[in-house]
Design goal:
Elements lengths: L2 H7 L8 H10 L7 H4 L12 H28 L13 H10 L3 E9 L12 E8 L4
Antiparallel strand pairs: 1-2
Protein backbone atom coordinates (compact mmCIF):
# COMPACT_ATOMS: atom_id res chain seq x y z
CA UNK A 1 0.00 0.00 0.00
CA UNK A 2 2.89 2.36 0.71
CA UNK A 3 4.94 1.24 -2.30
CA UNK A 4 4.05 4.02 -4.77
CA UNK A 5 4.63 6.74 -2.15
CA UNK A 6 7.96 5.19 -1.18
CA UNK A 7 9.10 4.90 -4.80
CA UNK A 8 8.32 8.58 -5.42
CA UNK A 9 10.81 9.50 -2.68
CA UNK A 10 13.73 7.55 -4.15
CA UNK A 11 16.40 9.79 -5.63
CA UNK A 12 19.53 9.07 -7.62
CA UNK A 13 18.28 6.02 -9.50
CA UNK A 14 17.39 7.79 -12.76
CA UNK A 15 14.91 5.88 -14.89
CA UNK A 16 15.39 2.68 -12.91
CA UNK A 17 12.43 3.49 -10.67
CA UNK A 18 10.02 4.90 -13.26
CA UNK A 19 8.93 1.62 -14.80
CA UNK A 20 8.83 -0.14 -11.43
CA UNK A 21 6.56 2.64 -10.13
CA UNK A 22 4.28 2.34 -13.17
CA UNK A 23 3.99 -1.45 -12.82
CA UNK A 24 3.21 -1.16 -9.11
CA UNK A 25 0.58 1.54 -9.63
CA UNK A 26 -1.02 -0.23 -12.61
CA UNK A 27 -1.05 -3.83 -11.39
CA UNK A 28 -0.53 -3.65 -7.64
CA UNK A 29 2.47 -5.98 -7.89
CA UNK A 30 6.08 -5.64 -8.89
CA UNK A 31 8.63 -8.21 -9.90
CA UNK A 32 11.90 -8.27 -8.02
CA UNK A 33 13.88 -7.32 -11.08
CA UNK A 34 15.53 -4.14 -12.27
CA UNK A 35 13.89 -2.13 -15.05
CA UNK A 36 16.14 -3.65 -17.67
CA UNK A 37 14.60 -7.10 -17.21
CA UNK A 38 10.94 -6.11 -17.52
CA UNK A 39 11.23 -6.40 -21.29
CA UNK A 40 11.69 -10.14 -20.81
CA UNK A 41 8.24 -10.38 -19.27
CA UNK A 42 6.17 -7.57 -20.75
CA UNK A 43 6.33 -7.01 -24.51
CA UNK A 44 6.30 -3.21 -24.45
CA UNK A 45 8.52 -2.78 -21.40
CA UNK A 46 11.80 -2.82 -23.32
CA UNK A 47 10.81 0.63 -24.61
CA UNK A 48 10.63 1.93 -21.04
CA UNK A 49 13.74 0.20 -19.70
CA UNK A 50 16.89 2.08 -18.75
CA UNK A 51 18.86 1.19 -21.89
CA UNK A 52 21.85 3.24 -20.74
CA UNK A 53 21.97 1.15 -17.58
CA UNK A 54 21.74 -2.05 -19.62
CA UNK A 55 24.63 -0.92 -21.83
CA UNK A 56 26.75 0.01 -18.81
CA UNK A 57 26.05 -3.37 -17.22
CA UNK A 58 26.87 -5.18 -20.46
CA UNK A 59 30.17 -3.31 -20.87
CA UNK A 60 31.27 -4.12 -17.32
CA UNK A 61 30.05 -7.70 -17.53
CA UNK A 62 31.85 -8.24 -20.84
CA UNK A 63 35.14 -7.05 -19.30
CA UNK A 64 34.57 -9.28 -16.28
CA UNK A 65 33.94 -12.37 -18.41
CA UNK A 66 36.99 -11.70 -20.60
CA UNK A 67 39.21 -11.45 -17.52
CA UNK A 68 37.61 -14.52 -15.95
CA UNK A 69 38.09 -16.42 -19.22
CA UNK A 70 41.76 -15.45 -19.35
CA UNK A 71 42.21 -16.73 -15.77
CA UNK A 72 40.51 -20.02 -16.67
CA UNK A 73 42.75 -20.52 -19.71
CA UNK A 74 45.83 -19.99 -17.52
CA UNK A 75 44.58 -22.54 -14.98
CA UNK A 76 43.86 -25.10 -17.68
CA UNK A 77 47.34 -24.60 -19.19
CA UNK A 78 48.84 -25.14 -15.71
CA UNK A 79 46.97 -28.43 -15.49
CA UNK A 80 44.50 -27.42 -12.79
CA UNK A 81 41.44 -27.25 -15.06
CA UNK A 82 39.74 -30.28 -13.48
CA UNK A 83 39.25 -28.27 -10.29
CA UNK A 84 37.10 -25.78 -12.20
CA UNK A 85 34.07 -28.05 -12.53
CA UNK A 86 31.90 -27.68 -9.44
CA UNK A 87 28.25 -28.40 -8.76
CA UNK A 88 25.99 -25.37 -8.75
CA UNK A 89 22.43 -24.46 -7.85
CA UNK A 90 21.02 -24.57 -11.39
CA UNK A 91 17.55 -26.08 -11.12
CA UNK A 92 16.98 -27.27 -14.72
CA UNK A 93 18.18 -30.86 -14.14
CA UNK A 94 16.10 -31.44 -10.96
CA UNK A 95 13.05 -29.98 -12.74
CA UNK A 96 13.51 -32.26 -15.76
CA UNK A 97 14.02 -35.26 -13.47
CA UNK A 98 10.92 -34.25 -11.49
CA UNK A 99 8.81 -34.18 -14.65
CA UNK A 100 10.15 -37.56 -15.81
CA UNK A 101 9.69 -39.23 -12.41
CA UNK A 102 6.49 -37.41 -11.37
CA UNK A 103 8.28 -36.38 -8.16
CA UNK A 104 5.79 -33.82 -6.86
CA UNK A 105 8.61 -31.77 -5.34
CA UNK A 106 8.35 -28.02 -4.81
CA UNK A 107 10.49 -25.52 -6.70
CA UNK A 108 10.77 -22.05 -5.23
CA UNK A 109 10.97 -20.20 -8.54
CA UNK A 110 9.93 -21.36 -12.02
CA UNK A 111 8.55 -19.62 -15.09
CA UNK A 112 4.99 -20.71 -15.88
CA UNK A 113 2.04 -19.49 -17.95
CA UNK A 114 -0.10 -17.24 -15.76
CA UNK A 115 -3.03 -19.62 -15.61
CA UNK A 116 -4.72 -17.92 -12.66
CA UNK A 117 -1.51 -17.56 -10.64
CA UNK A 118 -1.71 -13.76 -10.52
CA UNK A 119 -5.28 -12.71 -11.15
CA UNK A 120 -4.92 -9.00 -11.89
CA UNK A 121 -2.50 -9.32 -14.81
CA UNK A 122 -3.21 -10.87 -18.21
CA UNK A 123 -3.49 -14.64 -18.19
CA UNK A 124 -1.37 -15.05 -21.33
CA UNK A 125 1.79 -13.77 -19.61
CA UNK A 126 4.52 -15.92 -18.13
CA UNK A 127 5.10 -15.45 -14.39
CA UNK A 128 7.90 -16.51 -12.09
CA UNK A 129 6.48 -18.26 -9.04
CA UNK A 130 6.73 -21.34 -6.79
CA UNK A 131 5.43 -24.59 -8.28
CA UNK A 132 5.00 -28.31 -7.72
CA UNK A 133 6.90 -30.35 -10.33
CA UNK A 134 5.22 -33.49 -11.64
CA UNK A 135 4.52 -35.35 -14.89
CA UNK A 136 2.26 -32.48 -16.03
CA UNK A 137 5.14 -30.02 -15.93
Amino acid sequence: KKGPAYLSQLKGFGNDVDLIRYILERFGYIAYTPDSHYGEYIGWAWEKANLEGVRLFYTGYKLYTIKAGDRLVKRIKRGSGANLVKPDNERAIPIIEGILTDSGHEEVSVNLPNDGVITNIPQDLVVECPAIVNKHG
